[in-house]
Design goal:
Largest sheet: 9 strands, mixed
Order of helices and strands: HHHEEHEEEHEEEHEHEE
Number of helices: 7
Strand order of the largest sheet: 3-4-2-5-6-7-8-10-11
Distance between the termini: 14 Å
Radius of gyration: 16 Å
Mean pLDDT: 75
Structural class: alpha/beta
Number of domains: 1
Helix content: 25-40%
Length: 242
């Protein structure tokens, strides 16, 4: 199961984007697809054969919306289906998180998504957010290998390439109003807020609400119900698997 957001989950403070936009099509169609598509990588992140899950129709939905969003992307290194879904989750996380007002320069300042380290998303993430708004704010993407360059981001994805210095990175960002997302073991126990993980060949995510609160972030109950909750060193299952 790709664990992301259900189609029934909507943000009361978010205006409906154009139904023709790739991001909105994915946002509205992702529920069934997220529950049916198996992973493209193993626990070490090495490629595996992509195979449909129990519900083939839902897998077809994901394939269709991914294709629609990626069709006009520049010809670069292809993005794996795993990272297409992770990119879509990052986009959706913005709908279900509230930042303090001082995290933005003004009422229409963009929500910045940062990628620290190796970029596995390729052009897909840019294509996904192009023309989209969340809570009346546009979205932008920044990429860097420097933590300082990305301190102004609101969502920061830390690639597994940064694992050797992960502890130091999280310590430097400890008091920033940033939704920090990662994909390596122990990430949420070291101060990260959300971690993607694989369970029985499927991608899911876990959330550390205490880390979010410490950063001044409010995560909606809808999102919390979908993830495995981490409280200090104890994991409890809600929407995710143990």
């Amino acid at each position: 199961m790709w664990t992301c957001l259900p189609t029934s989950a909507t943000s009361p403070t978010t205006e409906p984007p154009s139904a023709a936009s790739p991001g909105w099509r994915i946002r509205r169609s992702l529920s069934a697809a997220c529950s049916a598509c198996e992973s493209t990588t193993d626990e070490e992140g090495d490629p595996m054969e992509y195979r449909p899950g129990k519900y083939a129709a839902a897998a077809a939905i994901l394939a269709a919306v991914v294709l629609a969003a990626a069709t006009s992307a520049p010809s670069q290194q292809p993005t794996t289906k795993e990272y297409m879904v992770k990119a879509t989750c990052l986009f959706n996380f913005a709908l279900f998180v509230e930042w303090p007002s001082n995290a933005f320069a003004d009422a229409v300042a963009p929500i910045a998504i940062g990628v620290l380290g190796d970029d596995e998303f390729g052009p897909f993430l840019d294509q996904l957010i192009r023309g989209e708004t969340v809570k009346n704010r546009p979205l932008t993407v920044k990429r860097s290998r420097s933590v300082e360059d990305l301190k102004g981001c609101h969502i920061l994805f830390i690639s597994r390439s940064e694992k050797p210095r992960q502890t130091q990175i999280l310590a430097r960002l400890r008091d920033e109003n940033i939704l920090i997302v990662g994909e390596t073991e122990g990430f949420t126990l070291q101060g990260g807020v959300i971690r993607f993980y694989l369970h029985e060949g499927t991608v899911r995510f876990e959330i550390n609400p205490q880390a979010a609160e410490r950063r001044g972030l409010k995560i909606s109950a809808q999102l919390l119900r979908l993830g495995r909750i981490i409280q200090n060193e104890t994991a409890t299952t809600q929407g995710g698997a143990p």
